[in-house]
Amino acid sequence: MDALAENGSRLFCSAAHAVGTASFEMQTCGDFSNRYWIGVTTTLAVITFAIFAIWHVAFSERGAG
Length: 65
Prior knowledge:
By secondary structure, the chain is mainly alpha-helical. It is about 90% helix and about 0% strand. It has one domain (about 1-65). α1 runs antiparallel to α2. It starts with a helix and ends with a helix.
């Protein structure tokens, strides 16, 4: 789970950096405990979104035919 948390926090913090919210990035990404939970939450959100996207495509294709 630590690897997932680290990758998720990198994704979140790089997104915060890209948006340009430097103060928000420093507040949330500077603290290790924040980075861990942000990483876990971001990773789970991405996985959940991917599952729902695949589910939606699979069932909308079946219903259209």
